[in-house]
Each structure stands twice: as C-alpha cells, then as structure tokens.
Amino acid sequence: MNLGAAERPLRDLLGAIGWDDAPVERLTIEERPKVLATPWPVAPLAAAVLGAVGLAASRIRELRTGERPRISLDMREAELAMASSSYLLVDGKPAKFRDPFTGFYEAAGGEWVYLHGNFPHLRDGLLALLSVANDADAVKAAVAERRAEDIEAEAIRRGLCAARVRERSAWLREPQAAVIAAQPLVHLERSEAAAAMPLLPGGERPLSGLRMLDLSRVIAGPMAGRTMAEHGATVMRIASPRLPSIPSLVIDTGFGKHAAFAELDTAEGRASLRALAADADIVLDAYRPASLRGRGFGPDDLGRLNPHLIHLSLSAFSLQGPWQGRRGYDSLVQATTGMAAEGREGRGPALLPCQPLDYLTGYLAAFAAMLALIRRHEQGGRWQATLSLAATAHWMWRMRDALGDDATYPSANPDVAAVADLLDTHDTTFGRVTALRPALRFDGARAGWSRMPVPLGSDPAYWPRS
After folding, report:
1. How far apart are CA 414 and CA 417, in angstroms?
2. In the chain, what's the furthest Cα-to-Cα distance?
3. CA 273, CA 268: separation in Å to the nearest integer?
4. Which pLDDT score, from 0 to 100, does residue 343 have?
5. What CA–CA distance (Å, rounded) separates 363 from 13?
6. CA pair distance 186, 384, nearest whole angstrom
C-alpha cells in the first residue's frame, strides 16, 4: 500500500462515510509531478476519490467471486480526469463547448458576477433580465450599471443562473454556508428496513448484471453513471426530447451507457420510467430539487415501487437550507464559494483550470452507489445518498487548509499532444472520438467500457436483455 499525498483526503472520506473496514491495503497510488495550472491540491483529492471508487469495486468483486483485486492509480491520470472534457476530440478537433456569453462581468462598485448561458434559454433569460441584445459590449455595459447581488437575486428569482463572485470569507457569512458545513461530504443512510439483497455471485466485472437508472444532465450526474458503466453496470440514461443538451458533454459522459427518451409529461413516458425503476438497482436524480418528486418520482414514490432501490440525489447547493432548489453548475458554485475570487490580481476572477466540483461529485456519487450496494448486501434496507457540488467545494477548501497549496505548478494545462499517451480513439456514431481512458486499474488491467457513447434517445426505454 502506498497512498502518498492522497492518504489524508482518502481517510477523511472513508471516515466521514463510515466505511471503517475498507480494504485500503489493496490500493497503490503512484505519485507524479503536478500537471494542472493551479496551486489547489487537485491531484491528491482526485486520487483519493478515484481510489475510494476502486476500493468499493474491489470489495464488490470480492463479495461476488471471492477474488480480491488490487487497485493501482497514477496521480497524473487522476488529476487530468478533473479536466476530462478539455481533452475530448471529435474527428481530431476539440469538442468542448462554451457559449461566448458565459463568463465573468464586472458589476457596479468593482464587484464581479458570473453569468451562465451555455443553454440558450438561460442565456436568453439573462439577456432579457439585462434588457440587452446578445452583444458583448452591451452586456458588459448593462452589468456595469447594476450591483452584482441584485443581478444574482433577480436571476435566481427567474430561475436563471448568475452568481455574485464572493471571497471565501463572504461565502462563509452566508446562512447556506453554515448548512453546508454541517453536512457530511456524502450523506448515506438507510431510509427503511428491508431484507438483505445479496449480490449475485459471479459476473465478468464488479458491477455486471446491476442496473442504474441515470436521470441527470451536464457533467456531475452523468459522470456517476459513466463510472458505474466503467465497472460493468448496465446504465440507462433517460432524457427528455424537449430539453437542450451540449453534444460534447453527451459524448464525454456517455461512455458505456444506453440512452433513451421518456417524456414525463405523458402517460407513456411516466409508465416507461416506472417500469425501468421497478427493475433497477440504483436510480440517480440530479435534476433540480423536487422536480421529479413533483411528477411522482421522488425517493418515497420509487421506494414503494421497488423496496430495494438505492436512491442517489445530487444537487448544486444541497436539499436543505434557504438555497435549496437553487440552480447551479460547477462554475457558479466556484464563483459563489470563493474558489474563483483568487483569480483577481488586476485581471478579475477566474475559474480553476478544470471542473473538480463536477467530476469529484460524479465520482463520489458512484462511490456512494457502490457502498450502498455493499450495505444492501450485508445489512439489508433501502439506502439513500445525498451529495451536492457545494458540499464538495467545502471539502476541497477543508482539504486545502490541511494539505496546503502545491508549491510549484505549471503556467498552463498540458495540451492534447502532452497527454497523448493517456488517450484512446473510438469509432462512434458521433465520428472518431478521442478521449482520456479510465484511470483505475485492477490487478494491472485497466477498467473500461463495453459501449461507445450514443446520441440521447438512441435506445428504447426498457432494459436490454442480458
């Protein structure tokens, strides 16, 4: 066992979730020079979370076959996994998308606000709020006349996405910060008693034969599903044909998955989702809090349908406190919690050169799902896990305080050529897709996917036959 700088965050994570008998002795983390352009200790945090995923997969493999695979992880690969979409190519061209409207704007009084408009309806809603056309100079001028907190408040009232850029100290004065600080990084609990549901013996991979219903969008939630597929689960991503999507993220997070449409405003769509949930092991809800509950698909509704169903809930700012229900993405949470404020120094705020809140939270959700499978096997019961991007940000701050900043770091992230040894190219319906390969290895063999990403709605809305 060699954990290096990842040991402290890994043990913190395992202790917080109560996995006291995790087989940590099976894990080896190979330290490497830092590769991302930030003083934040991203590499050990990423390695800790990915290591936890590996430990859970190894333990499930042991429960099903008696084998005890050893896990190895390269810290360079773990760190780069926090910027996965930046290394996605389609037919040799970078695929990552960001609407030019999206970014930081200086507001009245020298404050800053982050406006998120990567979906057209969010961009157009913010333009309407500012009463301007989609012109960069007009947007800058309109923001400069308003206070950042007023823009944020009105955007939230309208269901849009804007965040006043806060220093960490200002975030900690917000009532929601106290709510987040009082919560564990991952809250895993048995919500109801039920008989144990043993994991079926055998299986080619740790999660073979297990089914996950992925009700999520963008990055964090879909990454949880991708990670489960990476270890053999059958993952069905359900989307609405009416909701917009970002093709590069559908590709990046779609490895290993089936993808179907179900329109929950129709009786047919609701029936399809109920049938899928009745035969699933895990369901992930990463939509706006209470959205699915309002349609009859909350945790209790699904629990009555399937008493052994593991429920994962992922939100931006948690399901509790005055900000419950607030929309948010990685960038908005970074701006809100002080992670972006340090980019100032005469150039304004800046996001980290990766999306650690999205990717860490996605991997943490997969870890929670696997640990819930272990506990369902050993203890019985119906299990629920709740996670949020803000809780992950709080953990990152706490671990940064404990570990300190990295003393040296590059001035820019590596380009695609510099990570070519970690990329694979696949033939898909999207074209020739080049992407980072999975970072975890078991007894020397790298984890992987049995399916390539497909466009949303490509598959029928029922479980494939084994």
Report:
1. 8
2. 66
3. 9
4. 62
5. 12
6. 10
What are the angstrom distances between the C-alpha of 218 and each of 23, 119, 270, 463? 32, 10, 22, 23
**Computed from CA positions of residues 37, 224, 386, 238, in that sequence, does the dihedral angle turn out positive or negative?**
positive
Q: Is 14 helix (H, G, I), strand (E, B) or coil?
A: helix
pLDDT digits (tens, 9 = 90+) for 325-356: 888 999 999 999 999 987 645 578 999 999 99
| Reduced 3-state DSSP string for 69-126 | CCEEEEHHHHHHHHHHHHHCEECCEECCCCCCCCEEEECHHHCEEEECCCCHHHHHHH
Neighbours of 446 (CB within 10 A): 14
How open is the CA angle 383-250-333, to the nearest 5 degrees? 65
Task: Give the pair of three-digit tokens for residue 449.
Answer: 């996917």
Amino acid, single-letter form, for residue 446: R
Could you report the per-residue pLDDT of 63-93, keeping only the tens digit for each? 999 999 999 999 999 999 999 999 999 999 9
Place of tokens 């694979």: 424
**4-96+179-321+352-408+421-441 falls under which CATH superfamily?**
Crotonobetainyl-coa:carnitine coa-transferase; domain 1 (3.40.50.10540)
Strand partners, 89: 94, 434
Q: Taking the complete model, does pTM exceed 0.70, yes or no?
A: yes
pLDDT at 466: 66
Give the residue from 252, 334, 333, 317 showing the smallest Cα distance to 38: 334
